[in-house]
Amino acid sequence: MNVIRAIQTYIDKMITDAGPGMKILMMDRETISIVSMAFAQSEMLQKEVFLFERLDSVRSNEKLKYLKCIVFIRPTKDNIFMLQQELQSPKFGSYYIYFSNIIPRTDIKILAESDEGESVQDFKEIYADYLPVNPNLFSLHIPTCLQALSWNPEALERSTQGLVSVLLSFKFRPAIRYRAGSTAAQTLAKKVHETINKETALFSFRPPEDGAAPPLLLILDRRDDPITPLLNQWTYQAMVHELLSINKQRVDLSRVTGVPKDLKEVVLSTEQDEFYANNLYANFGEIATTIKVLMDEFQKKANDQRKIESIADMKNFVETYPQFRKMSGTVTKHLVLISELSVQVGQQQLFEVSELEQEIACRADHSTQLQRVKRLVSEGKISAANALRLVLLYAMRYERHANCDTSGLLKLLQDRGGRSHIVPRMLEYISTVARQELFNTVKITDAVKLTRNLIKELKGVENVYAQHECVLKGTLEEVIKGRPLDAQYPIMGNEVPFRRPPAEVIVFIVGGATYEEALAVHRYNQEGYRIVLGGTTIHNSESFIEEVLAATTGVPFKHSRSLQQFHHAPAGTA
């Protein structure tokens, strides 16, 4: 199960079916990102795709009849209308049209009637309607999906389409489970289930043999684990996203001092960058060692390049120069990234901040933690964003503590210009399940769970910056061990629940996934399991806070009435 390979297979098929010759690839705003995250432009050129155009761009009227046009777009109403206009006055010699998802028959008829010159040579649905981030991770790039803690209708429709596309690309007709108590997860599960039943011909895959359980689609809710997106991360990909932000594989370094012009924006792709692919989940200390090894190797090759004393040396130089240039670019790019991460860690005092975050997330020690949070927030040595995160974590953990002093912390935060109004909104955002289970504030009656928790406490943690375990890790353990799921994760429809664990699992998180959760999935996959994680988006702490603000707009304050004076943003803050 590899989402990047799935997308690449579809794109390769599109290009192959068009046959040899010069081709242009026409895309929309979203499919451009899908293609660029699967292939580099240089790879597309090798496939005889020499031009790239947006369907909605203003183009010249020049006819290019010698070109084959591959159209790869989402089946939206706007795209259908623009493609209809294109076919009524075709610019290219022939068209090979591919939709990234299921297209209604009425739209097919409209397009067929528009093709009066019979320039369309092929017309197909391919199921590549999601962004492949890592081999085990996909995103739908929906920054905010809830309004007043209910689905935004457009986001619900897009999420349904994206999930259906993922299922079809893997040829899965899954059992669908959703988080009990989550209306958002249940609604999405119902929509996907209805689509599968409606499109029975598309989902008529051979059932698993030997009585094996079908694949599982597990739909979860970000509101059940608001802790994970707020924590500082210490693995390479997650650190880059938290401190610099990764947007569709691109990192904007234009604000970093002293960065060369050609590195103002860099691409981080597991397909195009071997160093990145091998070190996605390496921690900060390991990365520093690894980049040193890469530097030594590069310097050795650079010295070898200088020793050109014979015809054979010249020939070898010409043959190895492209690889040398590529290695040079890789070394420079990652040196810049790691250097900037190191600067940020020092400037933001992230070791101290992260240690306290982990302590609050994993251990109950109210008095000590309150004093430490007060000191860090009031001293002003840490950034306002880090101060806010500490207060958020404290407020969630000690919401029901007799001596909870969230109000006092918010006053300190407000005094330094922090966004204190976000804390009450977060308390409205988190789910009932999170309140009961996230910090083990209720008595655990399940003997198995109690034993596991005790063992975890006794084992201790080697790394104080990585004590926290995301909720997803425990959820996946329940799934792959074949434990009963019906109470916490009801099955959608009339399917009879299988007691055997599924061989393949697709997890989708409404409200966004994180790279920490992708790491948990990666570790299970290393043990031989087949799991893919997806989300409406991929969060860092800042994007998650924006998600919370959007989701709680218009929600009455029930859980944070005691913080009434902080309910609204002070003048001049967002």
From TrEMBL:
Designated name of the protein: Vacuolar protein sorting-associated protein 45
Q: How does it sit in the membrane?
A: Peripheral membrane protein
Q: Which InterPro entries match?
A: Sec-1-like_dom1 (IPR043154), Sec-1-like_dom3a (IPR043127), Sec1-like (IPR001619), Sec1-like_dom2 (IPR027482), Sec1-like_sf (IPR036045)
Q: Which organism is it from?
A: Anopheles merus
Quote a single Gene Ontology cellular component term.
endomembrane system
- Which keywords, in A-to-Z order, does the entry hold? Membrane, Protein transport, Transport
Task: Give the GO biological process terms.
Answer: protein transport; vesicle-mediated transport
Source superkingdom: Eukaryota
